């Protein structure tokens, strides 16, 4: 079977890894199930995305892998550009609110954006180039 090529992580460009998920059993019938996981393993990636798909015991390894890769390879298209623009606007608005509250002595620090992970995500969204998100259909 020919394997579909994995696209790089949409957030950091790293090559994702494919692995078997945790083995589980159906609570009703006891049948085993195990999915395939595609995950960005770059520890510096702001999003660290992953997807689970397929079932090795129901359809086989090749089909489970194919489903996981297809799910991972889904990317933004033009209909999602508005969402990215809205996220960028929201990040800018949060910065303005924090700055205004600090200027009026209402905050001693950035109350709304105190999480380092949130700051990294917000920075990545603000820097996002909308033209690179658009995909030709």
Please characterize this protein's 3D structure.
With 137 residues, the protein is of the alpha+beta class. The chain has 2 domains: 17-72, no CATH class; 78-133. Helices cover 37% and strands 12% of the residues. The protein is built from 4 helices and 5 strands. The protein has helices spanning 61-72, 81-103, 116-127, 130-133, and strands at 17-20, 24-25, 32-33, 36-39, 50-53. A 3-stranded antiparallel β-sheet has the order 1-4-5. A two-stranded antiparallel ribbon has the order 2-3. Strand 2 and strand 3 (32-33) form a beta hairpin. Helix 2 (81-103) packs across helix 3 (116-127). The longest helix is centred in the last third of the chain and has 23 residues, at 81-103. The protein is elongated. The two termini are 27 Å apart. The model is unreliable at 131-137 (pLDDT under 50).
Residue stretches low in confidence (pLDDT < 50, at least 5 long) are 131-137
Q: Helix and strand string, N-terminal first?
A: EEEEEHHHH
**Biggest sheet, open or closed, and with what strands and sense?**
3 strands, antiparallel
- Inertia-based shape: elongated
Spatial separation of the terminal alpha carbons: 27 Å
Calculate the mean pLDDT score and round it.
77
The percent range for strand residues is 5-15%
Q: What is the rounded Rg?
A: 20 Å
> Which strand order do you get reading across the main beta sheet?
1-4-5
Share in helix: 25-40%
Number of helices: 4
Indicate how many domains the architecture comprises: 2
Structural class: alpha+beta
Task: Say how many strands there are.
Answer: 5
């Amino acid at each position: 079977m020919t394997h579909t090529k994995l696209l790089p992580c949409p957030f950091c460009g790293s090559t994702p890894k494919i692995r078997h998920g945790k083995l589980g059993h159906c609570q009703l019938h006891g049948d085993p199930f195990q999915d395939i996981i595609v995950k960005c393993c770059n520890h510096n990636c702001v999003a660290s995305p992953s997807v689970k798909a397929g079932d090795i015991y129901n359809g086989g390894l090749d089909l489970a892998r194919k489903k996981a890769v297809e799910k991972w390879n889904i990317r933004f298209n033009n209909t999602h550009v508005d969402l990215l623009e809205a996220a960028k606007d929201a990040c800018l608005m949060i910065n303005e609110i924090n700055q205004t509250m600090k200027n009026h002595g209402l905050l001693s620090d950035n109350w709304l954006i105190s999480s380092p992970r949130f700051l990294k995500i917000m920075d990545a969204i603000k820097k996002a180039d909308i033209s690179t998100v658009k995909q030709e259909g």
